[in-house]
Amino acid sequence: MNDAQIDLAHTVALGLIDDEDHHAIQTIIDTEDPTLCTEFLHEIRATRAALTELSELTATPPPPSLRARLLAAIEAEEPPVAS
Question: Of 45, 51, 55, 60, which shows the fewest CB atoms inside 10 Å?
């Protein structure tokens, strides 16, 4: 895989694809080179696994006051008016 294909795999793993990326992804998946397709899919899985591990390692609980602030903000909103 080249650098552009690796970057594209990372874009897929992050869920940031656009129409142009979608076409490039389809080209890789439809390729007659099974090694390229396998490497591309492996890179997506590896990136997702790394992102999952990173999010688990860096997760922090919200501040205790957040729940109270959110509930107060919801209560302060005007109820929707039926039209």
Answer: 60
